[in-house]
Amino acid sequence: MAASTSYETFIGLEIHIQLLTETKIFCGCKSKFGDKPNSNVCPVCLGYPGVLPALNEHAVELSYKVCRAMNCDLAKEGMFERKNYFYPDLTKNYQISQFEKPFGRNGYFEYESGGGIKRIRFHEIHLEEDAGKMIHQGGRSFCDYNRAGTCLLEIVTEPEFKEPQEAEDFLQAFRRTVRHLGVCDGNMEEGSLRCDANISINTPGAGLGVKTEVKNLNSSRFVKKALQYERRRQEKVLKSGGKIIQETRLWDEDKSVTESMRTKEEAHDYRYFPEPDLPPFRPDQAFFDMIEKSQIELPLARKQRLTEDYGLTPDQADYIVEEKAAADYFEAVVALGADAKTAAKWIMGNVAKELNRIDLSKADLGTEKCALSAERLTKLLGMLADNKIHGKIAAQTLAAIFNEDKDPEVIVKEQGWDSSADEGDLEKIVQQILDENPRVVEQIRGGDQKPRGFVVGKVMKATQGTANPQSVQSIIGKLIG
Amino acid sequence: MEKDDLLITAAQAQLALSAEEAGRLETAVSEMLDYFEMMNEVDVSNLPPTTHALVRENALREDNPNPNNNQEDLVNRAPENEDNFIVIPNVL
Fold first, then answer.
1. Which family does it belong to (chain A) (predicted)?
2. Are A265 and A71 in contact (CB under 8 A)?
3. Fewer Cβ close by (within 10 Å): the C or N end of chain B?
4. Phi-psi sector, A386: left (phi>0), alpha (psi -120 to 50), beta
5. Chain A: residue nearest B89 by CA?
6. Where are the alpha helices (DSSP H) in A206-282?
């Protein structure tokens, strides 16, 4: 909740996502994390003289797809610029980026926070090349250019978050959305989704204050923690009569503080100018139609629909919508005839437990990796609904589906777990147990309900667990009256 | 041209100017800039900005890997390398 503060807070985020393309943005080198250093490089991404960049079509499509999903005005003409800076993470001494004509402008995104729906606006979304990675050790820096020239989409929000918590909530929802869109894997630890935050505080009504930028935030939780720390720090400075210096600060995860980065005094002057080697991109109507067609129901809308149409609880809907695969799977199961609430309960409960046991996750639901196809879960829940098996047997059958990769009916039949085999047989078994235990019968007749459990237990043992406890209960009632 | 602007420009171009060179260039660069100023006299208010000299658009490449076979050669061209990294003096 809002900390007791006499200042107004302004937070903005700058997010970079690595697009899921096969190749880099301007050359045919593979775009792959974790390969041997400098194994995916060529004269283009190493900035050799005389080479020409050629724009990756798929990167452009994915960029527009994101821009559209974020409600941006889509550029009828997109352009690339050179952003000049001198640092060896890129060998050309400039980064090809977009400045005057980015692919998307004036977007917004809605997310859940504090029990309601909030909206954040985007200033712009642009495509650029990523830089290489460096390790600094002793007197030397080790450069790996595998990442140099990979496709990076930059999303800049307006400084309109009022609380660090909002920034965290937004980032989680945003991550989920780009994963649903299939444009980015959203892995913050590996850096395929990166986030810098800026924050300023001011007396209420006075507008933006002097901002600081915080870097090195590799989880959404750190974004919140770093912003909370930074806000407290700025408050202390202002309250003691000091001034905030505009600077970049690094989040130190171990110490839980932000620390000033040594930066050059002069402001950056990137001297942007149009990239002469890349002609403008002017999409035709067919391209825009294709982007429109590629849009999907976004996670927030889908969550709302699942709660409204199927009566799921917000927690259930959240759990299922977290992964697109899980949401698609859930809806497939329902389409095949399963009861929606039961299916949700099972996916969140027994199925989740089983997936965890065999080192899969809900993202694997509906894929080849997962033996529990939508059809199999539907059949299993159907048998449960028809009282062919009861809950405990259903759970055993579920485990067996994963272990043996067989249909649930086959497993139930092979194991002799079908409890509906013969109601008459079950009645005989109950009668026999009652005959063997006359005292228990008297107790039950006398109004003591406890011994019923004893009878049920005996029946379960006699039927090796297949009997439906509820059926046994009703037979006891029928036989004893 | 202001001297400060000249020194910033030189720094951005990674040039170390001596005081004597800076003094000399101050006048020379100012004259060059004045010369460019002549272009500002032309009325271009009705022209869209030129961003590209070629009459071309939408030059795109399919997203198919086209691996380069000379990575080793490229790394070896660097003055220093180690474990496939290109090594340079520490820049941090």
1. Belongs to the GatB/GatE family. GatB subfamily.
2. no
3. C
4. alpha
5. A140
6. 220-239
Beta-ladder partners of A117 = A112
How many Cα atoms sit within 13 Å of B64 on the Cβ side?
A: 4
CATH placement of domain A423-480: 1.10.10.410
Q: How many other CB atoms sit within 10 Å of the CB of residue A405?
A: 11
Contact (CB, 8 A) for A202 and A149: no
Q: Which of residues 3-32 of B touch A (CB under 8 A)?
A: 8, 12, 14
Inter-residue contact A162 to A11 (CB < 8 Å): yes
Q: Which two tokens stand for residue A65?
A: 């797809």
Q: Which residue in A27, A142, A276 is closest to B52 by CB distance? A: A276
Rounded to an integer, what distance in angstroms lies between the CA atom of residue A33 and that of residue A21?
Answer: 12
Whether A53 and chain B come into contact, CB under 8 Å, resolves to: no
Chain B nearest-CA distance from A362, in A, is 30
Domain ranges of chain B: 3-41
Distance from CA of B56 to the nearest CA of A (A): 6
Contact indicator for A462, A436 with CB cutoff of 8 Å:
no
Residue type, A184: C
Cβ pair A58, A24 in contact under 8 A: no
Half-sphere exposure of residue A194: CA atoms within 13 angstroms, side-chain side: 14
Give pTM, 2 decimals.
0.85
**Residues A108-132: tens digit of each pLDDT:** 999 999 999 999 999 999 999 999 9
Reading the block at residue A34, the tokens are 């974790």
Interatomic CA distance for residues A390 and A466, integer angstroms = 8
One digit per residue, pLDDT tens: chain B, 92 residues? 778 888 888 887 888 889 899 999 999 999 999 999 988 889 988 888 777 777 677 889 999 998 777 899 999 999 999 999 999 999 88
Q: Which of A174-178, A222-226, A471-475 has the lowest mean pLDDT?
A: A471-475
Could you give the C-alpha distances from A206 to A166, A235, A239, in angstroms and in order? Answer: 21, 15, 16
Cα–Cα–Cα angle for B75, B89, A246, nearest 5°? 115
The Cβ-side half-sphere exposure at A187, using a 13 Å CA radius, reads: 8
Does the beta carbon of A280 lie under 8 angstroms from any beta carbon of chain B? yes
B60·A57 Cβ contact <8 A: yes
